């Protein structure tokens, strides 16, 4: 059982209940996301859709408004599954909805799908590559996959909050008590995220109490490598990729085509660290070094390495970022280093004015389309 399922089943929770009181607005936001991924409502209409790990199905309800031919949903967590079936209960025409209460690893249909969506799940798994390959095998030719990636740079500030949260709650057994304390400590941070629809309680449970965040090391370039020459890059949100190549000069070989996006990812990777700013491109070496230090930090925090080593890694990250001229991000990291030298308590955390609004870009959505036989 993966970290999500262990945690969700232990406490009988499904901490993914966004506020969708304004459902029309929710659908428009989802349509914006899909457009960034080069998926329009007509791409979904009359297609067979598979969604893996939809939790209570709040996003799936929006996707369903685009009239797919069929919609198959796989949700193993019992609380999420109950919510999901309840949410889809009132839909008039249910003939084309299939909901399974099993883990995707145990789902073996004798058919394929046109579009497969797997959001907010793969980065938290240990067996990411096996899981992705299973998805790829269930996709029709010309079909589209939508997955999310979160890596060590994009999750840096959240990992630091997880470290602080662990220090603050290590002597508290009761999960409700833990979450109440963390909401109090980090509410002012979360309030700076204007577009956030996720409940603060859900966010604290998933990111600060659950351990799946330690697995958040899935980089976009790794996904591109896994797909080899069987898929073409289609879109991303945030849309970090620009490509000025004249279409007649674009490589027609999928591997070379995808390499354009892979290279751009490395040049832009530092821009995932802090959603407040966009910095000029940097060298691949600088960003690879930053990626290494951020990964070291995740491993150190996961393994309860002494505070002194954590400070040393943060100093290396700060040094690396100084060459990019990203002063507010650097100031945020300096504040954390300063905090770690003092007592980690509510009062001291509340004094960190730069860190308060420092969040990484979190998860990125990426879409790919499967090469079809007439491409060969
Ligand atoms: C962080 S939640 C994301 C929920 C939703 N997709 C979203 O983005 O709002 C991860 C979801 O994946 C589900 N999940 C975990 N392991 C799974 C597996 N092996 N197969 C299918 N779903 C899984 C969890 O139960 C949970 O609902």
Proportion of residues in β-strands = 5-15%
* Overall average pLDDT: 93
Q: Give the distinct bound molecules.
A: S-adenosylmethionine
The secondary-structure class comes to alpha/beta
Instruction: Identify the overall geometry.
Output: globular
The total strand number stands at: 7
Task: Give the strand order, joined by hyphens, for the main sheet.
Answer: 3-2-1-4-5-7-6
Distance between the termini: 39 Å
H/E topology pattern: HHHEHEHEEHEHHHHEHHHHHHE
Parts with pLDDT < 50 across at least 5 consecutive residues: none
Question: What's the tally of helices?
Answer: 16
| Biggest β-sheet strands, sense, barrel | 7 strands, mixed
The percent range for helix content is 40-55%
Q: What radius of gyration results from the CA coordinates?
A: 21 Å
